[in-house]
Amino acid sequence: MRIAVIPARGGSKRIPRKNIKLFHGKPMIAYSIEAAIASGCFDKIMVSTDDIEIAEIAQQYGAEVPFVRPADIADDHATTMDVIQHTIGWCESQNMAVDLLCCIYATAPFISPVDLANGLALVAVGDIDYAFSATSFAFPIQRAISLNENDSVQMLQPEHVNTRSQDLQDAYHDAGQFYWGKVSAFKAGRPFFSLSSKAILIPRKRVQDVDTLEDWEFAEALYAVMKG
């Protein structure tokens, strides 16, 4: 069995009610649920939440909410792995044989059903633990700078101050959309970022974290341009 798990707790601080806040006319979580349904990858699509309103909206858009997430993994310190492992434990208690699982973030309005299907294709047949969404950095990370306590500037990798951009290695980061994985890997708590993972590369124009109000405004503007 293949399942999707969408973590969506109710206590978001920086953007209150972020998971169900309207984004271009729909609750933010609806985009993740609809992409999961459209992908055709899943036998079940579950939302893990501690919030009644989120549960009701998730069900309206086609997801299942078969349990209430316990309070001890619904605070600011709960990790994605905590939520996934709890869901796996619940499935096992219901005698559900799950072999592949995809964690989909609730705040991923640019998620694509095609990317989800590509992730499944990798993790289902490959000798890997995980396949997750990633994108490239827009600027060479070897040229990154930091500020010290006096706000003076220093390079993080000063050895590359004179290296040509075309000679620097490309770098990528987690796109914050989804993580496909083998249930055995999730249960063991194996790290997402390792040689046992592969990346589904997504164009930067379809990647935007939504952690602050500024992020939200930028995501709305970007979505309007893409859909306009």
TrEMBL record:
Recorded GO MF terms:
N-acylneuraminate cytidylyltransferase activity
Q: Which major enzyme category is it?
A: transferase
- Which keywords are on file for this protein? Nucleotidyltransferase, Transferase
Q: Where are the transmembrane segments?
A: none
Enzyme Commission (EC) number: 2.7.7.81
Note whether Zinc-finger occurs among the keywords.
Answer: no
Q: Which PANTHER family match?
A: HAD SUPERFAMILY MEMBERS CMAS AND KDSC, N-ACYLNEURAMINATE CYTIDYLYLTRANSFERASE-RELATED
NCBIfam families per the UniProt record, alphabetical: PseF
What is the name attached to this protein's record? Pseudaminic acid cytidylyltransferase
Q: Which organism is it from?
A: Moritella marina ATCC 15381
Organism lineage string: Bacteria, Pseudomonadati, Pseudomonadota, Gammaproteobacteria, Alteromonadales
